[in-house]
Structures are given as structure tokens and as C-alpha cells.
Specification:
By secondary structure, this protein is mostly beta strands. Helices cover 9% and strands 47% of the residues. The protein has a 5-stranded antiparallel β-sheet. Strand 1 and strand 2 form a beta hairpin. The longest helix is centred in the middle third of the chain and has 6 residues. The two termini are 13 Å apart.
Length: 70
């Protein structure tokens, strides 16, 4: 699935992406690290994998963020 990087905090390595319908979906450091990225800038197109939220959270969560390549 593709998305657009929306926010990113280099200190925590967490942030959020926007799906093509405009829905924001957060990602944590584990999802960022799984993609092997060093930096992410808002506006970059990324490839993501989604999973179900864990614990008491509801909705979806990003389990992998990596750069979109063609």
C-alpha cells in the first residue's frame, strides 16, 4: 500500500502517514526501523504495511514504512 509521509520525529523515530483518502495513520519506531530508513521527510511517498492496533488502541497501525520505489 502507498501513502505520503505526514509527520516524523527523528528523536523518537515515530510519526504518521496519510493514506490516499486523507486518513492519518500513526507509526512507531519499530515500523520505521523495520523499513531500514534513516530519515523521512513530510511529503515523501512511502510504501507501508498495515496491521491491527494492539492493546487498548482501536483502528489500524503501520507495521512497516519504507520508500516507494518504481
Amino acid at each position: 500500500m502507498q501513502a505520503t509521509a505526514y509527520t516524523y520525529d527523528p528523536q523518537t523515530r515515530a510519526g504518521s502517514v496519510l493514506l490516499d483518502d486523507g486518513t492519518p495513520v500513526p507509526f512507531d519506531a519499530a515500523a520505521f526501523d523495520a523499513g531500514g530508513l534513516r530519515l523521512l521527510r513530510p511529503g515523501q511517498r512511502v510504501r507501508i504495511e498495515l496491521g491491527e492496533a494492539q492493546g487498548g488502541d482501536t483502528g489500524r497501525r503501520v507495521t512497516l514504512v519504507t520508500l516507494q520505489t518504481f
